[in-house]
Predict the 3D structure of the following.
Amino acid sequence: MEIAYWAEGDSGRLPDNAGRVYWGHETCVERLLSAFDVDDFSIRLRDTDTRLTFVTPSLTDKEMSQVCRLVDTFSSSLGCFEVVCNDWGLLHWLTDRQSVEPTIGRFLVGQATDPRLAAFDMPDRQLPHERTVSHADGTLVALRYRRPPKSLMTHLRECAIDIPEVLSFLSRFGARRLEVSNVLQGIRLKLARGWRASLHLPEVPVAVARDAWSDEGNQWLHPTFPVHLHRRDNTVFFCNNGKQEDLPAQGIDRLVYRTTSL
Amino acid sequence: MSVTPDLRDPPVPGGDGFRIVAPADHPEEVPALAEAGADEVYVGVLPPSWSERYGDWDCISRRQGNIANLASIEQMQHVAEQAGAAGLKASLALNVRYTAGQVPEVADLAVAWEEAGGTAVILSSLGLLVRLQQLGSRLARHISILANVTNSQAVAFYREFGATRVILPRELTVAEMAAVASMQPDIEFEAMTLNEKCRFIDGLCGFYHGTTFPDDAASVFDYERSGRGGTPVVHSQDLCYAGHGCQVPFVDELGRAIPQPPRDDVNRPACAACDLMPLYEARVRLLKIGGRGLPTGLKLRAVSFLRRACELALDGSDVAEMRDHYERTFGRSCDGASCYYPSRVFAGD
């Protein structure tokens, strides 16, 4: 199992003894473009024999040209490296870039990330199991808990990307890897031959806003959520350090840690 | 000197005038929406076979329950017939990303929709796009706002799956939309112009949409009644559901409320009327009204408002006149927070 770490924040500080670092931003291009000197970062990667996975967010056309320049900069300096695409347009653009190994980002794989979905199958979190509520028209109704069917919980563990025909199509763009989150309800990947996945720990991104919050709290708490949420920049996350089962059998051969998320 | 394009005789080669795309939730609404000025309708469907397997949350069309979804395949077919009779195009929202086991069932819905006369599907699932190609479906493929198509390369990506229209994310500015559209001249572009603005980006939001109780629509739930006429029962897999993620009253670690934007207010809806001409110039000709699940009267009001707004834009009306139209329609003045694409300055606000 390969272990990778996110390079820390805007300084691009490399974790000790990391064979591979993830650097970039999944949700905010401004954070990406305002970062440190990329040339200097490339030299440090080369000097420490550290492999790069460059992480990119969803992009407008203008942002796409800016990010593509960064890709070209890394390309000329590092040779081969990975680019995590969270935008089908970038994947499309990368098709002819021989030195780049595109991977399918967490926002494209179609995982269910709301932690409340895991609580569907947590009867102890659904107490009391029956209560009377009133419609606005005055009609009284008993609202009663029903444990979800197996088909639903199976569905919640799956991704929308690991359909053989879809993976075959994406292979035409050079992709052979995808990134997944450590979602609370568990993971059930069925990758086609030749595909591999990276599992990100512990943060699971739930929702992204166009703009970053300016002065709101870092923690987002509510008793109906089985875990605490937190926000960073323009994204709301939760953390899950729980272990997933049978990682190699699911094609997961890399763990990606973010150690300073809170 | 700026020239106002004539929407009835558009100056762009191959272009069309604006077309209004309105939500429908019942077959009976379709003729009324056409009468009010809609050119197209879109619907969702949540058949019992789906809710038995997956529940009634938003995993078939990003809207929950039968308030915002037709309750049966028969109703869906009836909508297609009504739309055909009224001369409207009709699209079916199968717009979320489906897992391998779901794709065949969803594709069956699309086939039934096509056979009934439906003209398009709204979608973001690569699996469904591939499946429709395999089935030889002739339905037009409208790429959903949930696909988060923010650049022209992404449009090119979806064109490989036969996309004919892209519904642009509501977070883009009109200038960003123009940049996308200018590179893809043979694709239609659609944008949200009324209702349902949210702080989160549709295609990057994982908060699920469930059914909240109490609700004002008693008739749409599948009740179980005891033989003795007791209180009707509704089953749910999430009794804790406190609302969409954008509506939950979160607090921080010190118990202070996290400020959330005001909920979408049907009497002060998010609106892009003042930006109709810039949208037109950006080649966005399809004007989408959000609001699946709203009462019929509110949908009709929205269509009438937007139809008149198109006429005002055509006549070269200024922002003040458009805002006056807004206030006369909704009974409240427009404010900057209601603006869908807030690129203009609201003097005096």
About this structure: The two ends of chain A are 25 Å apart (CA to CA).
